[in-house]
Amino acid sequence: MQRYMAIQEIIEHPIWNGSIKKVVDFGCSEIGLFKCIKLILGLNNIIAVDVDFDILNINQFKVVPTNYGHISMHERKKLLTVDIYNGSIADQDDRMLGIDAVICIELIEHLFMDILDSLPYTVFEFINPKLSVFTTPNVEFNILFPNFTTEFRHADHKFEWTRKQFKEWAKQIITGYSEYAVQFDGIGAGPPGTENIGCCSQMGIFYRKDMTASPVTPIVRC
Prior knowledge:
The chain has 222 residues and is an alpha/beta fold.
């Protein structure tokens, strides 16, 4: 939930001046982010994408408007549309063109290296969003988990990065796509005295430089 709330805060940040209207959540899994961002009045279209058809089928009911949702619709200048697609971030899908924000919450660590290597082109060249946010586990934080005996937090993880490794990956992206800048933050602080190992999740916030005349100040603090 902390990750979802962090994403909500980023999308709602006034620095975007209401320009974030169409959002895609890659690796949406149980469509959990939708609940946090559906009431953002500036959003016109939320797209949820996952490779797992069954999990999408089970959770698609979550996007059906509730009574409270119907009330909030009256406050909108334009109706919110929601699309659920069975697909991958590796796909160069024309339906993703015109996306303002790409969100990838705890996704990249599930990707095989060939998909991870193709991700920058798909996101930053093909989709070319105004904003893109990636979160991923901070492997340095794992020592705080009691009885943690496995290599990674989840059996499907292909890797888990240190903060240095994540920053190196992100900086390679902005070197190749110089119209973007990136800032780093964290989600889920540890107990007092563990500040040196960072947060549970690390976050990279990529934004197109034409979106703002001044550097983006930190948006979320762990």
